[in-house]
Amino acid sequence: MTEFEALEKRISVRSYEKRLVDPKLLGELSDAVSEGNERYGLNLQLVSTGDPDKPAVKLSGAMFSGQVNAALLLVGPGDDLAAEMLGYWGESLVLRAVSLGLGTCWVAGTFDRDSVSPALREGDKLWGVIPLGYATEKVPLKQRTIRAAIRAKDRKLELFLESDRSASSLPAWVRAGVEAVKAGPSAVNQQPVNIVYRDGLVTARLWKENANILKFNDLGIAKYQFQVGAENAGVRGFWNFGDGGEFIVD
Hints:
The chain is an alpha+beta fold. Helix content is about 35%, strand content about 15%. The chain has 6 helices and 8 strands. The strands form 3 sheets. Strands 1-2-3 form a 3-stranded antiparallel sheet, with helices on one face. A 3-stranded mixed sheet has the order 4-5-6.
């Protein structure tokens, strides 16, 4: 499965089977975790109990069903730049997990923080978690209701874009990137990021002045989604970090 195919397949899974994640899959994810930590100075941690009766993180019963015995702990410095990097690399890990057949979900507040014990360096904080498990074949009614409520708030494609031209007249790779942003997750489902296309330049900015403290996580998530969408349309590039950071075409 390609990364773009994983992007198209990904959904926020809130109903999990009670079974162990294949250790080989965890090994593959562990390598990607280490790569992100080294590249960006993060402290992401992959945890697994190895016990189907012992959850890696206790998720809110009001929002989730089942349990997971493996999870990614989103740990890093407590500043905005680190938050964005966690969103960016965390989303790459989400797509990697999906390509391996796992279900995931960005979880910022609806979990028991006392149920996890991350190793924190000085200045680190736990921003959130990403459960890793197998989605149930049948989605419970409660989970379908939650998903429908979230999707009802989805913004139209044009509302993810600020441009000096219409969405229909954008370069194909820019439109593909914006569509990928629209399809992406958000730390608390606010999606406070717009892609700006003017004078041939692409930037990403936070448009919600009152967005939550996880808005820089969302900025990183959106940037990674755009990058994958653009590359699938034939244009490779990389982002400058920061609110208003530019996408640089290779």
